[in-house]
Amino acid sequence: MQQINSILSRLSMFHPDEIDLGLERLFTLLGKLGNPHLLLPPVIHVAGTNGKGSTSALLRAMLEAQGLKVHVYTSPHLVDFRERIRLAGMLVSEESLLAALQQCEKANGDGEVTFFEITTAAALLLFSQIPADIVILEVGLGGRLDATNVIPRPAMTMITPIARDHEEYLGSDLAGIAKEKAGIFKAGSPIIVGPQADVVRDALEDEARTKRAGPLFVHAQDWMSYEEHGRLVYQDENGLLDLPLPRLLGQHQISNAGMAIAALRALAQSGLLDLSDEAIAQGLQQVKWPGRLQQLTNGPLFDMAPKGAELWLDGGHNPNAGQMLAAALADLEDRSPRPLHMIVGMLKTKDPSGYFQAFKGLARDVITVPVISQTNGQDPVELASLAVKAGVPASAASSVEEALQKLALIPREAPPRILIAGSLYLAGEVLKANGEELD
Predict the structure, then answer these.
(1) How many domains does the chain have?
(2) What pLDDT is attached to residue 41?
(3) Which helix (H) or strand (E) holds 240?
(4) Using 50, 70 and 90 to split pLDDT, how confident is the model at 167?
(5) Average pLDDT over residues 408-430
(6) What angle do CA 320, 325, 329 make, to 5 degrees?
(7) Phi/psi of residue 43, each to 5°?
(8) Are residues 112 and 200 in the same domain?
(9) Whole-angstrom Cα distance, residue 390 to residue 294?
(10) How far from chain centre, in Å, is Cα 196?
(11) Claim to verify: residue 236 and residue 328 sit in the same structural domain
């Protein structure tokens, strides 16, 4: 792993800006590599603001339950960079990743390219070399100018719920953000549209018409998914499915599961793949996606929590994600009441006030902590003041460990429910500190 970390560090120096959206640099590099993006199995391209990772995980679980070989590209990683690239069902090996990165570095020469672009090129190169039935490709940022948007005609494009995030790059206008996300639409490629605000759905439909993309399969018009009597009910023009609830917790995962089912049923209808109802059910029960409302039940950090406490971890980091997370925690409170305490670290680029407002009246307090692995982390003292202004009592700590120690000293009648949240980077730090193994 030391060699991989060394080359990743070198690659990060090829371009002075971490994020510089555009496709010309990547197309040039891919040309030098023999255009591997044109040699892939059918591609499912996933964009949106919230739920991209969970939806991709659900897609993979269902496809693999059907016995298919699946390549997956996601970002960011939590603990190990290899999490970003899954080859035919397995995390990329250190040897294969190193060889691909070295090949990309050699092909690039002294060309200017961003870290995400050259690592995306490495993933596409690997996908072109290893046989598989399908590729799940998750957009990094935006859509139109994202490095993943080099596939000429995906088998399926998907837009998960769109909200304000990365405003410094995408702006704050929802219709404009939707237009950027819809940049992945291609003529003749079908589109799954998840739950959206009216202005977003209208913008997506306009872009689809302009690009002659589609057909569109729109949430609440062409398909729907909901919980009923402890089961997931999915319905489209081809019928109704009575399924188990997804293993991933939260009502928002009902919609994410619905998007995944809608996409795969549409692909099955087109004859591109086989998909049984049994595979869908099995995928729902077996899906894993670390750092998304994940309960930690052992490990060093768990041992530091108050005796009998529940310890939860989530990487959601914008106001919309906060609302969905708060709804999930409120549902947990209804089913199993416990006092909720939060440990939160965020980046300066996020909207802490909007995030904390979702937890007003739900969380007893917040202890803010630094995101140690990032140079642009929000100062815990400033973050605590923003939580207080949003209506949630807050104080600052120097680390997650110190926050857990502070919570352990509070006298209480019932064991608490503790949520560590606010950043995927913080989630990665927590998983690493707690000794969690990712497969």
Answers:
(1) 2
(2) 98
(3) strand 239-244
(4) low
(5) 92
(6) 150
(7) -110, 135
(8) yes
(9) 25
(10) 17
(11) no
Amino acid at 391: G
Chosen domain end from 260, 286, 312? 286
In the Cβ-directed half-sphere of 128, how many Cα atoms lie within 13 Å?
A: 16
Q: State whether 115 and 231 are in the same domain.
A: yes
Residue 357 belongs to domain spanning: 294-433
Residue 386 above 70 pLDDT? yes
Closest CA to 25 of 143, 121, 101, 124: 121
Tokens standing for residue 292: 């998304």
Q: How far apart are CA 25 and CA 430, in angstroms?
A: 35
Q: What are 147's two structure tokens?
A: 């490095």
Helix (H, G, I), strand (E, B) or coil at 108: helix
Which of 238, 268, 286 is the last residue in one of the domains?
286
Question: Could you tell me whether strands 231-236 and 223-228 are parallel, antiparallel, or unpaired per DSSP bridges?
Answer: antiparallel
Model pLDDT, residue 415: 93
- Tell me if 148 sits within 8 A of 56, measured CB to CB: no
Residue 82 gets the label, from left (phi > 0), alpha (psi -120 to 50) or beta, of: alpha
Sequence-ordered alpha helix ranges (H) in 48-93: 52-65
- Per-residue confidence (pLDDT) for residue 7, from 0 to 100: 87
Q: What is the DSSP letter of 358?
A: T
Report pLDDT for 22: 81
- Using alpha carbons, select from 319, 248, 238 the residue that is nearest to residue 275: 238
What CATH number did the domain enclosing 259 receive?
3.40.1190.10
CA distance 145 to 362: 39
CA distance readout (Å), 149 to 37, 124, 184: 10, 12, 6
**Three-state DSSP class for 439?**
coil
User: Does residue 247 sit in the same domain as residue 340?
Assistant: no
Which residue type, as a one-letter code, is found at position 326? A
pLDDT above 90: residue 347: yes
Contact (CB, 8 A) for 42 and 308: no
Q: 99 and 243 share a domain?
A: yes
Q: Are 142 and 75 in contact (CB under 8 A)?
A: no
Closest by Cα among 434, 430, 424 to 84 = 424
Q: Taken in order 393, 412, 396, 418, is the CA torsion positive or negative?
A: negative
| Shared domain check, 107 and 46 | yes
Predicted model pTM:
0.91
CATH number, residue 414: 3.90.190.20
Predicted local confidence at residue 2, as pLDDT: 79
* Whole-number percent of the chain with pLDDT over 70: 97
Say yes or no: 271 and 345 in one domain.
no
